[in-house]
Amino acid sequence: MRWLFLVVGVAVLALVAAVVIVLQPAGEEKKVAAVAPTTPAKPSQTAPTPKVSEFTDRCGTFETKEKAPYAVTGYWITPKSDPCTWRTQLKEIHDVGGDTIIRIGYGLQFRTVSADGEVQTRDGELDSLYKACREDGLTCHDAAERDLMKANPDNRIGRTYVYRTDESFGPNLFRCPEMEHSVRAGKRTYFRLITQPDGSDDSTCDFSSKGASYDLILVAGSETDSLTKLLDLGDQFGMRVFPALPLAPRDPKTPIRANKKHLGTLTTLTRRILQDYGARFADRASLGGVYQPFEVQMSDTLASNPTLEVYADQHTIVEQELPGKPILISPYMDARRRVAFGQTPKQVAEAFKALAKTGVGIIAPQDSRGTGKVGLFWPDERDEEVDERLRPVVGESTYGTAYYGSTRDYYREMSLARDEMVQAGYEVQLWANVEAFEPSGERPCAPQGTRGKTDKKRLDQAVTMTGRYVQKVVSYMWSDFMTCGQPSLEKEITADWRRPVAVDAIRRSRDIQDGVEVRGYNLAGSTVSVEWSGGTRELSVPQVGWLEEDPLEELPEGMATAWVPFDWTQVPADEWVRVTVKGANGLVSSEPLHVRIAA
Hints:
Organism: Actinomadura luzonensis
Domain DUF4434: 223-485
Oligomer: single chain
Strand content: 15-25%
Protein name: DUF4434 domain-containing protein
Largest sheet: 8 strands, parallel
Number of helices: 13
InterPro entries: DUF4434
């Protein structure tokens, strides 16, 4: 994948404005030029490549060559206890062109402690996960308080937090070794951290001068470090890994917001983990960045959400401890008209700006089609009935009645917002997170929930709607949504990956000749078909046009640009035209592009 953050170039903007002949892409209200890079290219990092063509270990032999590269190049995965599962998952993902792994993470949780010093669940029961954490016959809580009181009798533990993970950490997790250390208990390694409630994390380690109240963080970790294993696999397969940062405790009254009372402790835990990452992994190419899994809805009031403080604080720490590694977030959208919190494309664009101002490097909004909160449709389809798979969410309705806009409308507005933020000096990328599931299904894919299997045709449609507006396409998630059902979505992609996926078409002249430029995947040797009320033209790219397979650094991996001559004066103004692409193998793009000339 390309990891390019650009600086604004006025000359490039001027050049683009000079050469683009305006075509009305689907959903654009007035004359809009093609979205093109707003900044000159800087040298990009070398794309990761596998170390070897295959490797063998106790889990088997694994090839590292892509077999069926698809438009989606990154996937979320869930933690698994079996290390062989990691290898199988990464091989499957790499087979279909994946070069990016994003890990689902865990949350920091505030907990009460019993009179016996035992950590309790939220319901007040004994939490068995922390029962084994004992020192000198005492619970880890009581042992920590004992040690604090030895330093000063007025010291105490005011609040206790827990954090579980399948990772293990090195000595850089600890700031004050006389009070902080690891505790081995069977297959678990616990990490005891003593911190200031305000998140200041005093480096003097002076616990004796005056009595104070401290926070205790008990991390239930692993004997062996899963992140090390993932990064090693990333090196072998040529992939980048985004481990998850700790999830903030939720506001009990408004669970979609972070709880401000606990942000200081979250900041300390984040700092400690990233200090450890920096010491062990800062130079690892397979560490692509870090992922903050606390989701927020993109709305025009998002700037007041305390969760953005989490993003900003963690961005500062990442800059200090892992320079050059971005934070990735994946907020969600809701375009439904019939709910009070539905948002228009422009409102979502304002949210994008608010998120960019926190310093996060990658914003990957969920397309929200899998949850039914946004639809996939073109402007001339507003009066059509919604896909029946959306009816459990929006009922029997037309697209125009159910939604403020299509996912394409939202990504377009966010791309304009991104251009504005890049010009203001913010280094931020816009990725698309296309949801590889349906709102419900006869056989739910995951053990919990009702989400059902989707199909490649619908996934192609989702990719199409991202247009030329994003820098990368990723998907939530690999397991269980890509692997459930018969055939699974993974198998459908493997069988049909050569099918062209056209994402955008614009009117563009070349020299003095009028024509149409198409962007998409698998365009080599293709034929572009333009259909309007006056007829249909089929234009062979190899015979009458040209193909640029790596046109611009800001396009997603694998996207190409084709051009064919076409006289647009024969198409009536404001008429919707359909553009499809047929590959050299005879496969036709599943979703036609709907475009029109601006009046």
